[in-house]
Fold 2-amino-3-carboxymuconate-6-semialdehyde decarboxylase.
Amino acid sequence: MTVIDVHAHVFPKISRAEARMLAGAGEPWLRDGMMMSGEDDYRPVTPELWDAGARLAAMDRTGVDVQVVSSTPLLFGYAADGARAAEWCAMVNERVLAHCAQAPERLIPLCQVPLQDVDLAVKTVTEAKAAGHRGVHLGNHVGARNLDDRDILLFLEHCAHEDMPVLVHPWDMLGADRMPGHMLPWLVGMAAETQLSILTLMLSGAFETLPRSLRLCFCHGGGSFAYLLGRADNAWHRRDIVRADSPRPPSAYTDRFHVDSAVFDPRALRLLVEVMGAERVMLGTDFPFPLGEQEPGSVVAACPELDEDARAAIMGGNAAAFLGLRS
């Protein structure tokens, strides 16, 4: 069984001078094991985040054969103007490719795009595919624009036409001013952001118009979506304002996307598989961050309701199909 982790991050080495390309829009860079935002310390990190040798050694220790490598969300650059963001994304994408080129059979690169400008985002993903990227990594919103924004939907349609799978990651979490401590934006806000993204696509009617060939995966097990799907369905049946733009209840669209398995509890994974189907769940660890799954696949192994076929699918088979990898 080939073990494929679809949710693993990279922060390639970027200098302070290079980060000034995003003047006024975060200016992320690396300094001595610290992610920086301008002059401010953002988070301490370990070499696995930027050093391919350290990454591969960690994969060997934990039994991961393949990682799908996506940029750390701090690098998105969505607050910059489109032209600067496109230049920034080109640099980040080039360095992600170089990182993955050190073990091309084991490290699968995803590009990022200037999602704030649909024309530049379309151009960037087409160029990135030609350069060797195997998919796209997106934040789940751009400012107040959710995934059902007209321009973002046009971009997702383009990804479908380019046959580029899309990994959606929560970021810039809502309500952060009410969650100043204890990493609550990551513990509460991220789950809410992802549920918001999924329900927005469902209730706006976007899934009725997006090509079925579009391959979407939402991180962190889809956030709080699976647990609250019954509430959403109940609201759709009982309130016309909920179903105004969607001809079918939310549960009718669970075959339109995948989720990763990063839920950290066999009971949660059991519910996720019941809601999504085992064929829609893929191993994801959030490597190499401390809030990620430190023993990849341990929750899958500890879920007694999964048979061996389901475990094999979640651990790698589903991801191979999602990414179009050779079997």
